[in-house]
Write a structure and sequence with these properties.
The chain starts with a helix and ends with a strand. By secondary structure, it is α/β, with parallel strands linked by helices. It has a single domain, classed as Rossmann fold, CATH 3.40.50. It has ten helices and nine strands. Strands 3-2-1-4-5-9-6 form a seven-stranded mixed beta sheet, sandwiched between helices. Strands 7-8 form a two-stranded antiparallel sheet. It is globular, with a radius of gyration of 18 Å. Helix content is 39%, strand content 22%.
């Protein structure tokens, strides 16, 4: 998790500012989670509060939300909210010290899929949740109208990744999520995918947006020449194969609700 902490500390200043990508999808995730009023909620990988704030609105003043975040710069931002029913914890979920059976539900927006120790995180989440508490989480998915560009981008990403000595496994390998979650005491009770378009303003702006969050990890690791070449290749692919030539972020996130068993 040190890797993620350092990455998101670097990204914090521009994270989710323009466009408010994670705030848009965070609100969708909370709607999907259907958090009960007055319940207690743990937000894992809270970032700047994209899921935290709508979760607070959902549970109301008699509910509570604990925002857990590993990046110190993100924690400093979260702490500026100073809300009575919000707790902010600077912590790695795989090493959480939250008490057993201390929250009713957990949510996590665009975080679990980039953890280096997903099983370790699930063990802790299972321990922290009460009874048949739920975990609602989201991960990226390809928009059905942008498959060709997603493949092109994936090929470019893979080509430039090969220029590095070490590539974090969580950035290249996708586990069998259903079997992984079941092995750690969770079962899927609902899944939902919705294709979305979020205006971003063209290839240069699209590229700039990718550098404001976790997608910048490859650029950070490449040398200057390779990073410039990578940027040019991505921008060219947006012009040539993206359905709106980079004027929209096209994504179809997968929302999954799990129940603790």
């Amino acid at each position: 998790m040190t890797y993620n902490a350092e990455l998101f500390d670097r990204a914090a200043a521009q994270y989710d500012e323009s466009p408010p990508f994670f705030r848009i999808l965070g609100a969708r995730l909370v709607d999907f989670a259907n958090l009960p009023v007055a319940s207690s909620v743990l937000d894992i990988g809270a970032g700047k509060g994209a899921v935290t704030l709508p979760a607070l609105a959902a549970v109301g003043p008699s509910g509570t939300v604990t925002a857990l975040e590993v990046a110190g710069q993100m924690v400093e931002f979260l702490e500026t909210y100073s809300l009575p029913n919000l707790s902010v914890i600077h912590q790695d979920i795989t090493k959480s010290t939250l008490p057993d059976a201390s929250v009713d539900h957990a949510v996590s927006g665009f975080t679990l899929h980039i953890l280096s120790d997903l099983r370790g995180a699930l063990i802790q989440i299972h321990r922290i949740l009460r009874g048949y508490g739920t975990l609602s989480w989201s991960k990226p998915g390809a928009h059905p109208e942008a498959i060709e560009w997603e493949e092109s981008y994936g090929n470019i990403f893979g080509e430039f990744s090969k220029r590095l000595k070490d590539v974090p496994s969580e950035m290249t390998d996708e586990p069998d999520y259903e079997s992984t979650f079941r092995a750690e005491g969770f079962e899927i009770i609902e899944q939902f995918t919705v294709p979305l378009r979020i205006p971003v303003g063209g290839p240069e702006e699209y590229w700039a947006w990718t550098q404001t969050h976790g997608a910048r990890w490859l650029t950070d690791q490449l040398n200057t020449s390779d990073a410039d070449e990578f940027k040019s290749a991505v921008i060219e692919s947006l012009w040539s194969s993206h359905p709106t030539h980079g004027n929209d972020i096209m994504v179809a996130p997968l929302f999954t609700k799990m129940r603790r068993i």
